[in-house]
Structure formats: C-alpha cells, structure tokens
C-alpha cells in the first residue's frame, strides 16, 4: 500500500465579488515570484540540503521515493480501482523500476512544490511542470514526456475569438502564478493593453466549471485539463492556443545527479516508451473527438430517461459485481435508453441483444427493460470472466466491452495480431490500435475469425468511457443532494 499524505479536495464556492484587476506592477511581481522564491530557498536554506554522496543509493536505502504532485484529473486522484492519474501511473512505474515504495505528497501551488523540493522534503515533482529557461537555471528537469498547449476557453454562445489581439479588453481569468500567467506576461510585451485576473483560490478545473456555467467569460488552461473537463461542461469551447506547444517534464533537485541519470536511463527504455503511449491512450485517447451534440443530449437525458430504469441497472450490477454506472453507460451507447430500440441487424432492447444471445441468457422478451438489462449485464459479466485474469483493470473491462460489440473471437484475433506486430496483447491501448486492422485483408488473412469492422468496437468503448465518466459525476452529485435533503428534513425547527 502507498503511504499517502491526504489533503481535502476543495469544493468551489463561487465568489460573490470579482477580484481586482491585475495592474502592470502586480503582473510583473507575480511573474517573478516563483524565481525569487527559488533564489531565496537556495540562498538561505542551502545548509539544510540533504546532499548525498549517492542520492540514488540514499533513496533505495530508505526504500521510498517521495514525489510531489497535484490532486486533479490529470495528475493524481483516487479512482474506482485505487490511486490513479497520468502522472501517478507514470511515476509509480519509475518507483517500481527503482524497487522502492512510492509516497505521494499532494501540494496546491508551484511555489510550495519548489520550496519543498529544494528543502529536501521530496525527491521529484511530477505535476506537469513546463520546461522553461528561467527555472532551468535553478532546478533540474528530467526527460520531456508530453507536449501541451495553453488554450483560451469560453462558452459556445459567446463571440468567437481567433487571435491574441481579440483578448484585449476582455476579462480573462487564470490561476495565479501558473504557466498561463507567465505566457501572458510574455505576450504583454507585444500587446501592452492585455490584462487579466489572477485567481489564487481556484484551480483550473474549478475555473472551467465556472466558465461553462457562464459565471466567468474566459479562462486560459492546459489543453489536457480542458479535454478532460469538456465532457462535464460541454458548453465550453476552445477559441485558440496562445502558444505553439510547451514541453512537460518532472523536476528534481539540481544536486541529485544520480537520480537524474536513472531517470534518463528509464525514460529511454523501450518498455517506458510503450508505457507512455499506453498511458496517453488510456487517459486522453478516447477524448480525441468531442461531440457537442451527443454529450449535451446525453446530459439532458440523465434527468428524464434514466430514472425509470436506474434501479434495474443497480440490481443487475450488484448481482454480477459490476459498476451500475458502467452498465447504464453501455446501455445508453446501445439504445439511448430506449426499451423498444431496434437495429437493421435485428438486435433489440435496452442492451440490444441478438435473438440467439437472448435465448442463451434466458431473456424471453428483449423489449422488457428489466429482462434486457439483467440479460445484457450477465452477458458482459461472462465476457469479463473470459478475459485472462492477468490483464489488469481497467483494460480487462475495456476488452470485455469490445468483445460485447465485435465478438469474443475477433477480440482474440486482435490479441494474436498484436503479438505478431510486437505489441502488448494485454494492453487496451495496443488492442485499440490493432482492432481497426481487422478490416484489412493483409492483416485478417490467416486469423481464425477473419474480417471484422474493427474500428467500431474502438468507438464503442471510447463513447462508453465518456458516458461513464459523466454518469459517475452525475450520480455522485445526485447522492450528495439526496444526503443534504435528508439531513435537512431531520433538522429540528428553528
């Protein structure tokens, strides 16, 4: 088990008053704050630096790699299967490579992270730091592992913005001291009239929610964070990027030479290259295409189409030890929660069962929502059990969903093809890339089950994952509202 230092997740409460506008002097002072903090730490706390003859040996001797990160959707959070997040999964693999335990330290802002690192409280910062020349003079960056952009975001119903000049006179919100503000400082040299509001009480995800609700007009945030949050706030639209791309890297103490060498060697391993690709596919691959109409329609139907069938999903999922929101998300992909749905191929009902499959499952009436939901859930559970147990979650579930759509035989063919192509048959990211090849003769020739429309199960799983994330958040919000209402009913009269 990981030793975790827990911090409460802040639930945003929108301010009643707008923050004061940032003056030019404030902008300049904010841009220099992080570098000044670094210089002060280096000057006044140098005697406290834990300088080791071999810093890597010291880490391995204590058996713990201490890593600073953020508690958000792109770095680290507690998911249904335990701790997860792009940064967490990547740094956990590095800790396993060193054969040490990973200890996560959650911190809120860049200044605190840097100060803690330089004071020897941690070995690495794995929080999506942007590689920059000013920080490079005082900190040591590891290998570059991802490129992101800073993007201008607002509501779809507002004026379309195309260039930096369009931002002049517009109220722009950014998190204080972040790389978005740094970029704006640079742009201000060319556009002196550019101004913005620096917000210290809210993270980017909170500002995105506020922008989606129309509480604030514009924000600037990282492209990965935006892609993850547009599922929950489909009214958001990306106007343009204010940079051509920025490199992300981990950060270490400049004196930890041996740790730096180990990082370089690990990132160059073929297994790490493959891991990076899998993680990018896992966290961001299904977000490549954003369908505003589909997401908006789905969110509307949560309130009026889902409730009559919710308990059926809950009961069926409990019976087969599955997540009811996953089954509900799959059902929406199959039928849009229409009990009388029918395709041109003859599959019918909430879970779109074939006649043969329905008979196998004992479903007598495919148009009966209860029978269909219980039958489809049982079928998914059977497929899930057929997936080898050495395939970890959530990849095992993704493969079961793909088999539900395209057939278990074609899934096995995709796994065999993955092996032939030097890919990992146990990784959904590799199977996701292999399945579409089943439509090409040079690939399906010689496989047991032959041709398949392999791109369809990929889209099928991607959409279910998107619906599942939205549905999970919706269910949590509904549960919180019900708890609050129940508590209010039990309150004594004033």
Give the SSE map:
Layout: E1 3-5, H1 24-44, H2 55-62, E2 64-69, E3 77-79, E4 82-84, H3 86-98, E5 101-106, H4 110-118, E6 124-130, H5 133-136, E7 140-148, E8 150-155, E9 172-175, H6 179-188, E10 197-199, H7 204-212, E11 218-222, H8 223-229, E12 236-241, E13 246-252, H9 257-268, H10 270-284, H11 292-304, H12 310-319, H13 324-335, H14 355-361, H15 369-386, H16 395-406, H17 408-420, H18 428-434, H19 441-444, H20 455-489
Parallel strand pairs: 1-5, 2-5, 2-6, 9-10, 9-11
Antiparallel strand pairs: 3-4, 6-13, 7-13, 8-11, 8-12
Helix pairs in contact: 1-4, 11-20, 12-13, 12-15, 13-20, 15-16, 16-17, 16-20
Characteristic key phrases:
single chain; 494 residues; alpha/beta; D-Maltodextrin-Binding Protein, domain 2; Lysozyme; six-stranded mixed sheet; five-stranded mixed sheet; disordered N terminus
Could you characterize the architecture of this molecule?
This protein is an alpha/beta fold. It folds into three domains: 156 residues, D-Maltodextrin-Binding Protein, domain 2; 97 residues, Periplasmic binding protein-like II (D-Maltodextrin-Binding Protein, domain 2), CATH 3.40.190; 181 residues, Lysozyme. It contains 20 helices and 13 strands. The chain has a six-stranded mixed sheet, sandwiched between helices. A five-stranded mixed sheet has the order 10-9-11-8-12. Strands 3-4 form a two-stranded antiparallel ribbon. Helix 6 links the parallel strand 9 and strand 10. Helix 1 packs parallel to helix 4 and helix 16 crosses helix 20. The radius of gyration is 25 Å and the shape is globular. The N terminus is likely disordered.
